[in-house]
Each structure stands twice: as structure tokens, then as C-alpha cells.
Structure of Histidinol-phosphate aminotransferase:
Amino acid sequence: MSKDVLKFVRPSLHGLKPYIPGKPIAEVQKEFGLTEVVKLASNENPIGPSKHAQQAIQAALGDLHRYPDGGQLELKHELAKFYNISEDMIIVGNGSDEVITLFCTTFLEPGDEIIVPSPTFSEYMFGSTLMAGKTVEVPLREGFAYDLADFAKAITDRTRMIFLCVPNNPTGTYIKHAELESFLQNISPDILVVLDEAYNEYVESEDCAQGLEFLRKGYNVAVMRTFSKLYALAALRIGYTMAKPEVIGFVNRVREPFNVNHLAQVGAIAALHDKEHTESSRRVNSQGKRVLYEGFTKLGLRYIPTEANFILVNAGVDSMQLFQSLLKEGVIVRAGSFFGLPSWIRVSIGLPEENERLLQALAVSLQELKATV
Ligand SMILES: Cc1ncc(COP(=O)(O)O)c(C=O)c1O
């Protein structure tokens, strides 16, 4: 096929851009001849995977000739016990990314609408574009605060799903539980409200919305969680969603039979129960957050208080230039231009020494960039 390929590609996909992931450490090492590179670009858990998960994966290596459990029975059993819900309320995917796509595949016909905050995680729009759906973006307010009245106004008779990312990526801002409850009370139960809680386990504010409570009360919500963040298994690709059995039952029909590999399933079960690992992950994040807040303040930078494991910072310079300059210093961050925020960067909270490296590199890069303006 030549450039005429566009004749064969579905028109609704013509504008689709490939996802640009955070730059890998090895690539930066090679490109800049560096040995020590700190990656704070993809909101990964800096303390590394749980030892128990690693042992469970080692022990499972001899089973690699077998297909994984296509029903993910043991993992669903453990998750159901963990949350005190029934197993038919859970679907497991090859990362939450896959589950987002599965929900869009299941519920969207061409022209159907989803509502998302702006800025937010790009996969909701990706899923709706795949299905020739329309993504209605609702800008967040001053300080990237949610105002659910704006979302209510965006509802039309084509709205099928509302994706609310809590805490929101890339802003770290959240929705108050009471505000979400009155929103849910006032919208049609035919609209599925998807709460992407990828960073829920890091939340410190007690008034943050908890999707599971709404699911238990019978609202039409789906609660997305992942093993990629607090549970530190991003490389294995495993996430899950909890919703009413009838919702899960349909999404399950769209799922491929062996979508989650065996090592991911056994690793996830072990990680779920490794309290020491999850508690130290939360502690490192909470302490790192405070150190970075202080460091940004000293550098005169405005940041958005976060409930997650990353912070959005207004660097006051072009984010792509700053991104490039930080790479030379051996620090990988996420440029805000990916989210339509050209003077902001998003940084993941790292280990104490990584946070220190980031603050030092920022001081150097900002001085250089401001001197050249
Ligand atoms: C808000 C949000 N949801 C979902 C995901 C994807 O999670 P997973 O690694 O399980 O696909 C991410 C990853 O960064 C995210 O930020």
C-alpha cells in the first residue's frame, strides 16, 4: 500500500496519533553518554517490585508452556475477598489501558459521546476514537480543580460514559466524595461513570471520592484500578475494573480469552498481599512529595498539590526545551506540551536521591534556559 493507504483506513482513525511513552532510561544513557539516569516520567513506583511478587514469578517460570488462566479465577477470588465484593463484579486486563479500550468497544457506537476532563489521561480519547465516538472535553477550573457542574452541562442524549480520573493524571487533583455523590444522584443511571482510580492508593485527603462506595450503593459506576503504580508491576501489564455484574458480564464478552499473562496474575496476587511493600511505597511517596514541594518553592516554581505519585509544576519556560535540557542532566520528566500545557512539566515522585537529582538539575536547566531568553 502506498500513500493511498488513507483510502483503506477507517476515516475516524485518520487523526489518531500514536501514544508517545516516557523516554526509556537505556535510550537516554546511550544518547547522552550518561551512566546515571533518573526516570521520573511515567509515574512508576521508585522502590521497585515487591519481593514476594518476584518470588511468586520465579516460582511460576516452569509453567510458561501452559496458557494462562483465561478466567483469572484465583486473582479475581483474591480481589473479591480484598474488597468484599463478588467475583462477577471484576474484570482483569492487560493493564488498565486495555480495560479502557474494552469499555469503549463494549459501550460506544459511532457518534456516541464520552465526557472527559481536560487535561487528563489520553487513553479515554483513544478508546472513543477507535470506536468513531466523540470525546467531549470539559476544561478543569483554576488550579485544575474539578467542577462537576461543568460535566453535568456537557451531557447530551449521546453521552454513554463519563470518565473521571481521580486523582487526575497529570494534575493530581481530585473530586470530593460528597460532590461526586450529588452528581451521581442527578444524572441518568443509563450513563456509566467510569472512575479511573489508578492512583487511589496514594490518596491522603480523607474527603477524596471513593468509587467502591458508590458501586456498593448501587450507582452505575465502574472503578478502574491497576497493579502498575503502588503495586509496582508496570512491566507485567495488569489492571482491573469493578462494576455491576451485568456491566462486567458484557465487557467480558469483548475480552480476548488469554489477555492477562500467567506471570502477571501470580505476581499481582503476591503484590496485593504484601503490606510491607505497599506501606513503604506510600511512605516514600508522602515524604518525597513534601521534599519536592519545598524544593519547588525554593526555586520559585508554582506546583499543583497532588494526591498521587506525581506533581505538575509550572516551570515558566517552554516545557520541551526544559525536557531536553533535563535529559542532558540525566533526568527524564514528562513535558506538559503532551497535555496542552506548554510551560508545565509533570514529575513523578522518586526516591530521596532521585528527588534531589531532579531539584539540582532543575536549578541548572532553568538558569541556563532563562539566560538564553
Ligand atoms: C490515570 C491512568 N489510568 C490508567 C493508566 C494505565 O495503567 P496500566 O499501566 O494499568 O495500563 C495510567 C498510566 O499511567 C494512568 O495514569
Q: What stands out?
A: The first helix runs from residue 25 to 32.
